[in-house]
Specification:
386 residues; alpha+beta; 5-stranded antiparallel beta sheet
Length: 386
């Protein structure tokens, strides 16, 4: 007799809902019921995973181990763009723990209408529709290849929210105003349309990123013509908002010109261990488009240094192992002293009392948007539109 394959999804969805409650990711029974009732495997039929050497392979979602993965608090990559030399993930099903935390942060009530920017697989739209009903849920994504299958899959489980193929930066004027807007892709600044399409007093939850991993989710409330609010305590990151006809940025290879080595008292990987500083460094001299990374020892494969590279070729690397006197060795080259910008941010952050995310906030007005510490008009403020 062959063993019966265990592919039932309901107990797995229920177990996921229980787990999210136990972990404290959700407290609201309505969201718990939505997680338990949503067949995530229907919405995420194809999943890609990256191996240790960087290559992508697809996962069999229908297998028991595939189902275990789908009904776990894990982000699942669902679409790749082929750039010839490499693939880039362009759509995913965000991990359910983050999704429900965001929905709770957004303080959604049963009579609210909600716009989601970034439909992706439709999983979040399914949670929203389960709770609010199809007529109150709207979601947009950039490509019909993403939106159309999501619409079909949602319909196959009886959910029919309004899904539209649209650049989310435009919002969805024909169905505005919305009580809540949730963006599941990151933006450097808040599109004006989102402010205009929120009811007065409405809330927007969005990931503001000044550069890769440099920022966090911020909860903004509309008050007249302005949006204002603070970053959330827990850090999260989403893929960047894309636009059709975007010109790829020209990149110069990192240069050794003018390389200078010295020591620094600023810890070496702020994007991992000091994320507020990494965000602030984008306002204290880091050029637009910087990327961070790691150097690895070729033998042990252990990380040895944090690296920053700018599009114009400037480069910095900071050794992870401290020197005997508690400093770190840093080497900077090229036209911009990249690490100096991080040091400037670190000093300022310390002078401000080492604020965590909830002391940082954002204000959006028609003519300007800025980040601040403690007070929108206080000592520490920086325009986001640089
Ligand atoms: C993390 S995924 C969204 C996950 C989704 N909410 C879910 O539940 O599966 C981010 C999505 O943002 C979308 N996106 C990127 N740029 C966009 C834009 N300009 N307008 C609308 N959607 C965009 C991507 O195509 C991608 O599907």
């Amino acid at each position: 007799m062959t063993a019966q394959l265990d592919t039932a999804w309901e107990p797995r969805a229920q177990a996921l809902a229980d787990e999210l409650e136990t972990r404290g990711d959700l407290t609201d029974p309505a969201w718990k019921a939505a997680v338990a009732a949503t067949p995530r495997h229907v919405l995420v039929p194809k999943v890609y995973e990256q191996g240790t050497t960087g290559e992508w392979h697809s996962v069999d979602v229908a297998s028991p181990s595939g189902l275990d993965r789908v009904y776990s608090p894990t982000t699942l990559i669902t679409a790749l763009a082929n750039h010839g030399t490499h693939h880039e993930s362009i759509s995913s099903s965000t991990k359910p723990d983050l999704m429900v935390r965001m929905l709770e942060t957004l303080d959604v009530h049963d009579d609210h209408t909600v716009l989601e920017i970034g439909t992706g697989t439709g999983y979040n739209a399914a949670l929203l529709t389960h709770r609010l009903g199809a007529e109150r849920v709207f979601s947009v994504d950039l490509d019909a290849e993403i939106v159309d299958p999501a619409r079909e899959r949602l319909a196959s489980i009886g959910l029919r929210p309004t899904l539209v193929t649209r650049d989310g930066a435009e919002g969805l004027r024909e169905h505005a105003p919305f009580d809540r807007i949730i963006a599941t892709c990151s933006v450097p600044t808040v599109p004006r349309a989102w402010c205009d399409q929120l009811v007065d007093g409405g809330l927007l939850l969005v990931d503001i990123k000044a550069g890769p991993t440099a920022g966090n989710l911020v909860l903004l409330r509309r008050d007249g013509d302005r949006l204002e609010g603070r970053f959330t305590d827990r850090w999260a990151t989403f893929m960047q908002m894309r636009h059709h006809h975007e010109q790829p940025r020209s990149l110069h290879p990192p240069t050794d010109a003018g390389a200078r080595t010295r020591t620094t008292k600023t810890p070496p990987d702020p994007w991992q261990h000091n994320r507020e500083v990494w965000f602030l460094a984008h306002f204290t001299g880091l050029p637009n488009g910087v990327r961070h990374g790691m150097r690895f020892d070729p033998d042990t494969r252990q990380p040895t240094a944090g690296t920053i590279t700018a599009p114009e070729g400037s480069h910095a690397f900071v050794m992870l192992e401290p020197t005997p006197d508690g400093a770190w060795s840093v080497t900077e080259s090229g036209p911009t002293r990249l690490w100096q910008a991080v040091e400037g941010a670190h000093q300022m952050w310390r002078a401000a009392g080492e604020p965590g995310w909830p002391r940082l906030g954002v204000t959006v007005e028609a003519s300007d948007q800025w980040a601040w510490i403690d007070d929108p008009h206080g000592e520490y403020q920086w325009s986001l539109t640089i």
